[in-house]
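Annual report, structural modelling task.

Input specification for the threonylcarbamoyladenylate complex:
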Amino acid sequence: MKSTTVIKTSDVENFELKLRQAADTLHSGGLVAFPTETVYGLGADAFNEDAVRRVYRVKGRPADNPLIVHIASLHRAELFAEEIPFKGRKLAEIFWPGPLTLVMAGKSNIPSIVTAGLSTVALRVPKNTATLRLLELFGGGIVGPSANLSGKPSPTEAEHVLSDLDGSIDVLIDDGRTTIGIESTVLDVTFDPPLILRQGGLSREAIEKVIGHTELPGHGSVLGRSPGTCHRHYAPKAQLILVRESDSENFQRLYEDFRRQKKNVAAITHSIRVSGTSHSTRYMENSAEEYARNIFRLLRECDILGVDVILVEEIEERGIGAAVMDRLRRAAEC
Ligand code: TXA
Ligand code: MG
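The model returned the following structure:
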């Protein structure tokens, strides 16, 4: 197996040269995992069909799930978007670089493997110095699904990328932990009011302050899944159970029941304090930002510890809390 070259952003010596080499790797059809403010992405040249096909293959991603194209700035959007609607442009001017992906009418020369055959394209300018420089050096667009195996929690540290993809990607740019921790908000601006396809790092409230009302389709319709199938996205191996905020009594009862069944139980809480806990208890600050930053890492840690059941105290669905609860609910459904 070929090994993955790791470039650390903390290694300032020759960093620009190494980024140039990473851009060359992309030009020649290679795969480069890159940091963003949300989660790590798995990059390939958006106009190189073979490279994009490799992205799907190494992730084990179903081909009907389209990819986000990352670009260096709003100016580059014209390479991919047929038309940038007024509201989309306004949001991009304010929130790019940042955790917002805009779905717009796509140019017809975009390989259909990128868009999964749709007439639209998803674009985003990520907020990360090294990655923005890479995008500038590269010049075009880089597809970037999260750099994890499909179905595993998204990677928020370089180690997560290596644990899933070491040897099957060419380069990894290691910039430590990501700052936001959950993926970007995906907003379809071909509709008016625009449609939130995925809640994420930019809150609905922040978007609506700029463009007014948005629509949030029902849970089932966005997932578009048939009954009985289990959407494994975001899911740890363990069973995840959500407990209402501050419901200490219920939390404690569930905790003790599972312990009695000799289960290895982990607890993730912010206001509830559990008595008789093991090493797998994590208390977080009561802030949605803190939950977002840590949740995927904690779920991965639970897998490594061989946890059977994870009890998670819910968090208020305001701001980024709405996206956190969305991810937790999906993980709990499986
Ligand atoms: O924060 C993020 O968005 C990260 C970082 C790496 O940028 N990327 C990410 O990519 O989360 P991925 O592939 O895991 O999720 C992309 C989402 C999927 O829900 C996909 O269905 C949606 O964007 N998407 C992509 N293109 C689309 C399109 N043309 N129309 C509708 N949805 C689209
Ligand atoms: Mg993903």
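The first strand starts at residue 5 and ends at 8.
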